[in-house]
Amino acid sequence: MAAVKELLRVENDGTLSFGDYTLTSKTKLENFEFQGDLYKVKTFAEITKLEKNGMLIYESVPGTAVEKFKATEDTLEFIVSGEKDVQFTVELEAGTEYTVYMNDTNVGKMKTNLSGKLSVSAELNAGAEVSVKIVKA
Fold first, then answer.
1. Are the beta carbons of 18 and 24 closer than 8 angstroms?
2. Residue 110, CB half-sphere, CA atoms under 13 Å: how many?
3. Which of 3, 69, 61, 77 is nearest to 32 (CA)?
4. Could you give the CA distance from residue 131 to residue 105 in angstroms, rounded to a whole number?
5. Number of Cβ atoms within 10 Å of the Cβ of 111
6. Where are the domains of the chain?
7. If you classify domain 8-136 with CATH, what class do you get?
8. What whole-number distance in Å separates Cα of residue 114 and Cα of residue 53?
9. CA distance 53 to 137
10. Where are the alpha helices (DSSP H) in 15-58?
11. Along the 137 residues of the chain, how does pLDDT read in single tens digits?
12. pTM of the predicted model, to two decimals?
């Protein structure tokens, strides 16, 4: 998967793609309108962060590229790639249990904290990608 050179784009299937981990300095795109909401992305080699209406919805350390990001009431799905292993944090429903799948393998159940954040680590090699699916239990 290549970095998203536009920083943030809408795909033909109605999902979002964002992030460019190949950048050496922090770059951002603000006020990107999608389905009535405003998005902001900040990305470079060290971090990728996506906000919706001023609220965090995705953050990774180090930076990543994310494709086909789609959130529904009970499920969050996306494909992530980067140069090396990554930890990403997503904002979901507070104090709720979710089942996490990576490349269609159940990696276990996790519970969000009181602010709704769920942090997951993924093993990545340069050029490789991992499909992530987080389902409300």
1. no
2. 22
3. 69
4. 10
5. 11
6. 8-136
7. mainly beta
8. 20
9. 26
10. none
11. 567 889 999 999 999 999 999 999 999 999 999 999 999 999 999 999 999 999 999 999 999 999 999 999 999 999 999 999 999 999 999 999 999 999 999 999 999 999 999 999 999 888 789 999 999 99
12. 0.94
Alpha-carbon distance values, 34 to 17, 68, 81, 107, 129 (Å):
12, 14, 23, 31, 25
Angstrom distance (rounded) from CA 5 to CA 14 = 18
Q: Report d(CA 134, CA 114) in Å as an integer.
A: 18
Phi, psi values for residue 51, rounded to 5°: -120, 145
Going through the chain in order, the beta strands assigned E by DSSP cover 8-10, 16-18, 27-34, 37-44, 47-52, 55-61, 65-71, 75-81, 86-91, 97-102, 105-111, 117-122, 129-136
If you search the block for the tokens 């971090």, which residue do you land on? 47
User: What is the rounded distance in angstroms from the CA atom of residue 95 to the CA atom of residue 33?
Assistant: 29
Query: Both tokens of residue 109?
Result: 């159940």
d(Cα 10, Cα 1) in Å, to the nearest integer?
A: 16
